[in-house]
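chain below, 249 aa
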Amino acid sequence: MVVKKAAASKGRTQYAPAKNSGGGIELYLKRIFALMFGALAVTGVTSWLTMNYGLSLVFQFSNGAWSLSPLFYIAMFGGLGFIIWAQMRVFSFRPAIGALMLAIYSVTIGFVLTPLIFTALTVNPASIWQAFFIASAMFACMALFGYRTAKDLSFLRIFLFMGMIGLILVGVASFIWPLGSTFATIVCAIGVLVFALFTAYDMQFLKRAYASDMDDTQRNQLAILGALHLYIAFIAMFQYILALLNMRR
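prediction:
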């Protein structure tokens, strides 16, 4: 569920700083964060509803053991394919359609997060809030750093992309071969680092992209793409931190 950034990275080079249209960056950033926080709220509500009314859709009991249902895998891989396609087409859609796609994806993530949330509630309920606050603090610090720093962070792109692909491959492999606790801890720590840096990178990119020669429709489309990237970074950090907090229990 983390892979979605890959497709969008191909299109980032099209936004080279050009002329600043003057003013409005505050409104632009408010729009981005409003979309992101709205997506997070939808994810939280979806996960809560699934936990309380739809666990049978996530888990199945067969051969004397509980396992993830086929619907879970359909939602996970289907959502992955959907958002990769949506990112590649985001600038051909009206902003309202892009926002709808973000909402659909956030519902899918809320459903897919349910097993992790369920496990945390069973093992250590307090870890959910701890992971949320830690992820929020890290996200805020890295977003502010990315916005304020004068250092060009574009050199991070290839390393972050490679790190993300590695995390995706390890995540897929873990469904076939369970990871050892030490290796899983290392993977989670790397995941937190990669997406913390992605937050700073994306914030700097979005700030510079605002100065490009775009019309209002393109800026609204970019705001949706930016909200998606920041949403993915936050959700990924939350997942990895929550897994770390429950790793030894």
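The two ends are 25 Å apart (CA to CA). Residues 60 and 66 are 6 Å apart (CA to CA).
thats it, cya
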